[in-house]
Amino acid sequence: MLLKTIAISILLLLAMVGVSQTPSPPEARAGFRLRVRVGQGNKATGVPRKRFFLIRGSMEDNKALLDNLPNQPVLSRECYYRSKGASEALIAWLRENDCESVYCGEVAQKSIDGADAVPEFQRAVSAGEKEFGSRELARKWITVNLPNELRSGFYKLQQQRLQAALTQAQGKVTSVMTDRNGNGYFTDLEPGTYVISNILPIESANSSLLWTCSITVQPGDLATERTFLISNPGNKDPKDVRNIKCPSLEKPLPVCDSTAK
Q1: Which residues on adjacent β-strands are paired with residue 51?
Q2: What CATH number labels 30-73+152-252?
Q3: Is residue 78 within 8 Å of residue 256, measured between CB atoms?
Q4: pTM, to two decimals
Q5: Alpha helix (H) residue ranges in the chain
Q6: Where are the domains of the chain?
Q7: CA 29 to CA 110: how far, in whole Å?
Q8: Cα–Cα–Cα angle for 47, 49, 73, nearest 5°?
């Protein structure tokens, strides 16, 4: 009888140990598709190659960061490059390609030899041809012979401002770059409350656009199924108007100092 009692006790103890060591199931992860479209009137288009940030926590949790964003000075691309003495042709090239720096795409031959040739590109190719012994190679490596301020100065300045702002975020920060259609996918997220923002305003026509949006991610949300559309107040595109979750804060771009060099 005593042995039977001991055996039963041992079995119960082993069962308790087994239960206590059973791992709990992992928390379900989730995601969503961010869609960024802007326009005026009945026609809108996706916003490509723009970075958006997802910050864990509520708007109140990140109040120190979010309260400062609308008041930050807007430095337009045009004003920066004018202040560095860029030619009208280079400013037009950056505007046409929606680029913050010359690294955003390959410089085509027409921008060197055509009617719309950019003087800075022409000088860089001439210097590169002497260095590399090939005009085509000089074109492909054109950035090597551009001044630092024109090559990546604006991008670096924006990155400094961005990093300074993100130090005020209270929660974990992740980011995505929108594709050519204005889509970005946030995946492998813990369910909960988040803030979406571009932190630094982006330029659209003659305006700057800043988004600060709250989103709640639910268990089971899939990036392939759930879309979070953000846009500007002027977008009345019938495909979008009923689905816009967050309109941007829109401000006019500053007027550049035409005498700055």
Answers
A1: 177
A2: 2.60.40.1120
A3: yes
A4: 0.83
A5: 2-20, 63-68, 77-83, 88-97, 110-113, 119-132, 135-140, 148, 154-166
A6: 30-73+152-252, 85-146
A7: 49
A8: 80
User: How many residues would you count in the chain?
Assistant: 261
Where does residue 188 fall: left (phi above 0), alpha (psi -120 to 50 degrees), or beta otherwise? Answer: left
Alpha-carbon torsion (186, 73, 79, 211), positive or negative: positive
Give per-residue pLDDT as tens, 143-167.
Answer: 999 999 999 999 999 999 999 999 9
Q: What type of residue sits at position 160? A: Q
Distance (Å, whole) CA 261 – CA 257? 9
What's the Cα-to-Cα distance from 163 to each of 22, 65, 156, 166, 200, rounded to whole Å?
43, 12, 11, 5, 10
| Angle separating helix axes 88-97 and 119-132, nearest 10 degrees | 90
